[in-house]
Design goal:
Elements: H1 22-34, H2 42-65, H3 68-71, H4 83-88, H5 94-109, H6 121-146, H7 149-160, H8 175-194, H9 200-217, H10 227-231, H11 242-250, H12 262-266, H13 274-283, E1 294-300, H14 303-306, H15 314-317, H16 331-344, E2 348-355, E3 358-368, H17 378-395, E4 399-402, H18 409-412, H19 416-421, E5 428-430, H20 433-441, E6 450-454, H21 459-470, E7 474-478, H22 482-491, E8 500-503, E9 514-517, H23 523-526, E10 534-537, E11 551-552, E12 557-559, E13 570-572, H24 573-584, H25 599-608, E14 612-613, H26 614-618
Parallel strand pairs: 1-3, 1-4, 4-5, 6-7, 6-9, 7-8, 9-10, 10-11
Antiparallel strand pairs: 2-3, 12-13, 12-14
Domain Very-long-chain aldehyde decarbonylase CER1-like C-terminal: 451-613
GO biological process, one term: lipid biosynthetic process
Organism: Gossypium harknessii
Length: 619
């Protein structure tokens, strides 16, 4: 049987839980439109505004925590927040809805709350005194009580189930715990009002500062320098730090306080390692952290995808990309940030994970996809890529894999430019396309005898055509360049050359049910495919799936093995190609044209290490 107040009544509503704010919004709108006294229901607007600001504070702290390029040397726990934790904490903001309901009830029961003055300094002083003398000790003892076996198992264990502290972890708790927190946060506000010192500014200030310090304590990046406590030793009893609270999550019988360690000292529950660990973490902030074994060098795709970065919106970053129309109002701001990045930014750390004890990181070149097609921008982009490769070489990175347009043939010859310019490189430069080709080629059933290939003379198109012709599969290569077709034809074994056929129109494939799309095709061009066609693709962005009588494959992707530290573990095939290169310890660079002879070798190595194509996992 579920314990009372251990589950949220709206937990099955999903995103529709925000409809619960509807009555407040409706009442505020009605008063503004139809009533003479707009101030009568001003409390509705205040509650909605406070809720918005509370969510914004948590989001700012979340963004800061996920800006690994700023925080990586001050991490308290070195492992990242995995997708399971993100899923578990998805409804972290339930407590804001709960407290909005309680505040609405208070305003309806006590109408005088709507007539509070805007400012009263005495109210701030009174709320602070009440917080220190009542709220702090009340929370301390309530928290200790929640660690008793029954309450912990049925309630508080949910909060402690998050392995890595994060600002959203602060809200990840049961309704009963948040009702207790309502009391803790409400006593100073209620007391100040009863004393006659209440004000609107005091309510805003107390609630928002309370949330700020809750987020600070659940941050996985230390923000308080230890020098502060060296100069003011007593201050460590009056303000906690992220390190201090993180010890409570690892050693649960210590550090119970709300914000003031003084009460842990008085209750003999202060962890003696708190100050030492805090000093150790902050002392390392100026040093380089652990050197990654593998780096995936990516770039930003477009404005909309940029809004799905973990330091923008963590929840969106944990799910497959899709267009979300409500993000369109943020497009201008993101565009301005893109311009700032264009002028003043450098390659930065975006994400990381661990695989079999090896640290893998993703670095991002601060350029958007369209910029790669601007002739005047190519020199600067190559400079960013070169600097990233040289930095990886200095650090001792073993393999750096180039993503998407960072290995564009027209830009740098698939990485050849950098390898030729710096022959002394110890880091292995990899484009990863050999595994991409292997994933695409192993999607075909063995009875396929003919395929239609667009983007036929591209790097992947060339490798696909040469591999398939060796398997005695007829390849209709769509290209208007006879010269490029002939060049590929000469690479094929003499007895296989008749399996490569140049075509210049889509009509040539009207009887072929296996299309490999390496160049974007329009809906009209898709119309030439016969019913029942399957579209394999390695084109970015993917083609529009408009044919209901056909099927569409996803871009080549790989599921990493189970010992990967992030549960979903799906990466681009070219990313996985670099991982295989690193796991195998190969000493060669993988740049330029794809070596067709190595496709099967790379495929077998990937399977040996437990890397599986997503299509196989799903089937």
């Amino acid at each position: 049987m579920v314990a009372p107040l251990s589950a949220w009544p709206w937990e099955h509503l999903g995103i529709f839980k925000y409809i619960l704010y509807g009555p407040l919004a409706a009442k505020a709108w009605y008063s503004w439109m139809y009533e003479d006294n707009i101030l009568k229901d001003l409390w509705c607007i205040h509650i909605l505004l406070i809720c918005t600001l509370r969510g914004f504070i948590h989001q700012l702290w979340s963004s800061y925590n996920n800006m690994f390029f700023l925080t990586r040397n001050r991490w308290i726990k070195q492992q990242g927040v995995d997708f399971k934790q993100i899923d578990d904490e998805w409804d972290w903001d339930n407590f804001i809805i709960l407290q909005a309901m309680l505040a609405s009830m208070a305003c309806l029961i006590f109408p005088s709350l709507n007539t509070l003055p805007l400012w009263n300094l005495k109210g701030f002083i009174a709320s602070l005194l009440l917080h220190v003398t009542i709220s702090e000790p009340l929370y301390y003892w309530a928290h200790r009580f929640f660690h008793k076996p029954y309450l912990f198992n049925h309630y508080h264990s949910l909060h402690h189930s998050s392995p890595v502290p994060h600002p959203f972890t602060a809200g990840h708790a049961t309704p009963l715990e948040h009702l207790v927190l309502c009391t803790v946060i409400g006593i100073p506000i209620t007391g100040s009002i009863l004393m006659g010192y209440g004000s609107t500014a005091m309510i805003y200030g107390h609630v928002l500062v309370f949330d700020f310090f809750r987020c600070l304590g659940h941050s996985n990046a230390e923000v308080v320098p230890h020098e502060v406590f060296n100069k003011l030793p007593l201050l460590r009893y009056f303000i906690y730090t992220p390190t201090y609270h993180s010890l409570h999550h690892t050693e649960m019988e210590t550090n119970f306080c709300l914000f003031m360690p003084l009460f842990d000292a008085l209750g003999s529950t202060l962890n003696t390692k708190s100050l030492e660990l805090h000093k150790k973490i902050t002392s390392n902030s100026g040093k380089n952290g652990r050197v990654p074994d593998f780096v995936f060098l990516a770039h930003v795709v477009d404005i909309m995808s940029a809004m799905h970065a973990p330091f923008a919106l963590r929840s969106f970053a944990s799910t497959p990309f899709c267009m979300r129309m409500f993000l369109l109002p943020f497009w201008p701001l993101t565009f301005i940030i893109m311009l700032v990045m264009w002028g003043w930014s450098k390659t930065f750390l975006f994400s990381f994970y661990n695989l079999r004890g090896r640290l893998h990181q993703t670095w991002v070149v601060p350029r958007f996809g369209f910029q790669y097609f601007l002739p005047f921008a190519t020199k600067g982009i190559n400079k960013h890529i070169e600097e990233a490769i040289l930095r990886a070489d200095r650090l001792g990175v073993k393999v750096i894999s180039l993503a998407a347009l960072n290995k564009n043939e027209a830009l740098n010859g698939g990485g050849t430019l950098f390898v030729n310019k710096h022959p002394e490189l110890k880091v292995r430069v990899v484009h990863g396309n050999t595994l991409t080709a292997a994933v695409i080629l192993n999607e075909f059933s063995k009875d396929v005898k003919e395929v239609f290939l667009t983007g036929a003379t591209s790097k992947l198109g060339r490798a696909t055509a040469l591999y398939l012709c060796r398997k005695r599969v007829r390849v209709l290569m769509l290209t208007s360049s006879t010269e490029r077709f002939q060049k590929i034809l000469k690479e094929a074994p003499v007895d296989c050359q008749n399996y490569l056929v140049q075509v210049t129109k889509y009509q040539a494939a009207q009887n072929c049910k296996t299309w490999i799309v390496g160049k974007w095709i329009t809906p009209w061009e898709q119309s030439w495919a016969p019913s029942g066609t399957h579209f394999h693709q390695f084109v970015v962005p993917p083609i529009l799936p408009i044919r209901r009588d056909c099927t569409y494959g996803d871009l080549a992707a790989i599921k990493l093995p189970p010992d990967y530290t992030m549960e979903r573990g799906v990466v681009h095939a070219c990313h996985a190609g670099g991982v295989v290169h690193q796991l195998e310890g190969w000493s060669h660079h993988e740049v330029g044209a794809i070596d067709v002879d190595r496709i099967d070798l790379v495929w077998e190595a990937a399977l040996k290490h437990g890397l599986m194509p997503v299509s196989s996992v799903n089937n």
